[in-house]
Amino acid sequence: MAQLKVTLIHSAAHRLPKQRKIVEAMGLKRVNSSVLQPDNEATRGALFQIAHLIKVEEVK
């Protein structure tokens, strides 16, 4: 199964509470921090909610 490398490129401060919770649940702490997430429907749905704050790359 492929992995997704998610990088926070914009701060989650002053965003909707739901968006801040998603960023925190993904394990993203600071700007330019990255995490690996599994490529599945649940992850894709969460990433869609915060697409304007992140950069996503596929890792094999």
UniProtKB/TrEMBL annotation:
Keyword Ribonucleoprotein belongs to the record: yes
Any Gene Ontology CC annotation: large ribosomal subunit
Domain Large ribosomal subunit protein uL30-like ferredoxin-like fold: 4-54
Gene Ontology terms describing biological process: translation
Molecular function GO labels: structural constituent of ribosome
A Pfam entry, by short name: Ribosomal_L30
Name of this protein: Large ribosomal subunit protein uL30
Gene that specifies this protein: rpmD
